[in-house]
Predict the 3D structure of the following.
Amino acid sequence: MASRANHRFLLRSALLCAAALLCSGTAGVGAAEGQPSNPIPASNFPIASDARLAGDAKQTRFVLDLDKPIQFRAFTLADPYRVVMDIPQVDFRLPAEAGTTGRGLIQAFRYGLVMPGGSRIVFDLTGPARIAKSYVLDAANGQPPRLVLELEQVDRTGFVQSLAAESRPELRPAIAVAADPVVATKAAVPEPAAAAPDSRPVVVIDPGHGGVDNGTQAGGENEKDLVLGFGLALRDRIEKAGKYRVVMTREDDTFIPLADRVTIARNQSAALFVSIHADALPAGEGDAQGATIYTLSDKASDAEAERLAETENRADAIGGVKLTEEPTEVADILIDLVRRETRTFSNRFARQLMSEMKTSVRMHKHPLKSAGFKVLKGPDVPSVLVELGYASNKDDLEHMKSENWRARTVGSMAQAIDVFFAKRVAKAGPTN
């Protein structure tokens, strides 16, 4: 989370820019990972005239030449490893090839306007690294003001420790566990050396509903049971390949609040979150069939998507969870920038998943939709919600109960996950 000072600074810059109807040109990347904003001529914004890299695979420095000092915020993201630097709106006048060639820990970097009043630089890393130093130098000895970022190679554990305190997995357990006096007495016994950290991407599988929340009920079947069986089968298939570490939000008939499902994914630094559900049309509203893939959107893609989101979002009320309004922090500009990039990855995976699933299972006539699902709102975790079919449709229900259908669908989803990560690795380039 940005400091309040930086938050106010960027917000003030955005408001001033909007009032003056001024935006700078961009180069290369916008908030949505490669989608630059529509530029209009810049005026009186800081000018970035040159950028350079120095160092090696152990320590790497990035230097940006400016015509005046600026404020900034830098943070790290994983899977793929990146460093993101958010700055006030800048008029980038860098050489055309800037960022295309990497050095040391930095594979490449992209930059551009992400919103009126705010610019961003995204560094693709060759592996886990931490921000050792970041600072702005005033003009001196014939040198212009410079923004400096110094990176240091670390292992996965060191990377996690470099995250903001509220994002560290070890500081925010997914489920609180009461102290066990028996365990406490064993604490004095020396523990064996910890195993090497697992650096594989984390995939979180989220079977919907559970416990007192049955979800959709049709033909004597409960949605919570159908999706749990499917989720466990998907876990087994992915774990068998050994490429990813799989985390389940639930492995039995347990009720998990929606916010806790998101928290589990964030605490595990998940690279992908897949929520599994089954839909049903209310009696008298016709028939529908086929699988549907949903991504997060502030505005539902159609009335059916809106209805489904409202139904799924009531799960906490069914479980007796006290519902509260979203915290004001969700409006924070810097969090919004991360969300935009995350939604790009979510949409990319949704399209890949549809492409794989349609070859083996029946899809809905409109297979890609979006709505405001609470369970998809992790700002930094690419997420999709898959409705396996309509329990209110006899054929779909029989399919969801079929082992053969489940095996085919699990296989297509596992393939989509492989392709998704392969493309991200390919885009990042070879590591050193």
